[in-house]
Amino acid sequence: MTLSVEELRSKAAELRAKGLNTQQIADELSVSQTTVQWLSSEGVESPPDDVRIGWRTIGARATRIEAIGLILADIIDEELAGNVDTIVGISLNGIAFAQSLAGHIDADFAIYRSVDEDGSGHLSNKYGNVAGRDVAVIDDVLSTGSTMRRTIEALRSEGANVCLCMVLVNKTERNEIEGVPLRGLIRAVNV
Fold first, then answer.
1. Which segments of the chain belong to CATH 3.40.50.2020?
2. Burial class of residue 95 in the structure, from the number of CB atoms within 10 Å of its CB (0-12 exposed, 13-18 middle, 19+ buried)
C-alpha cells in the first residue's frame, strides 16, 4: 500500500499515541528513524533521503517467508559453506525470516530485541545460545546501519563470532558493517 507523506505523518502520530517509540515506529512503517523524526516534526522543509520499503506481500503468507528463508539459506551456503551455528533475528521484522532460515539449515535460532531509541537492546535468553558460536544476523531493512551495528556489538560482547549479516533490502552502498560481510537480497539506493 502506497502512503502519502500526510498519511505517513498521521500513521506515525497514531503509533506514537499508542506508546511506540521512534525505533518501533520506524519498524512498523519500514522507514529510517530519521524519517520518523522528520514525519513527527513541524515546519521542517526538506525530507530526509529515504525510501519506504513495503514487504507486506511477502510477510502476509508463511509460504512466502519460507521461500525467502530458502534464498537466505542459499546465501549462507555461498558465503560460509553453511557453517553457521546460530541465526539471530533482529526484532521485530527480522524474526520470521531468521526462524525460517534456521529451520532450513538446521541451526539454532536467537532473537536480538532492538527496542529503545537510545540505542539499547538485548539478546533474548529464551532462545539459542550465541556464546562461542558462529552466527549470522537477519533483519528486514538496513537504512543507516545503526541497528545492525548495535546488534553486532551486543553479540560480540556475548562471545559470538558474527560471520555474516543479511537483510531483505539494503538502502546503503555498504557491503560490510563492523568488519562483517553484509548481503542484501535487494539494494535500493538513490542514483
1. 60-187
2. buried
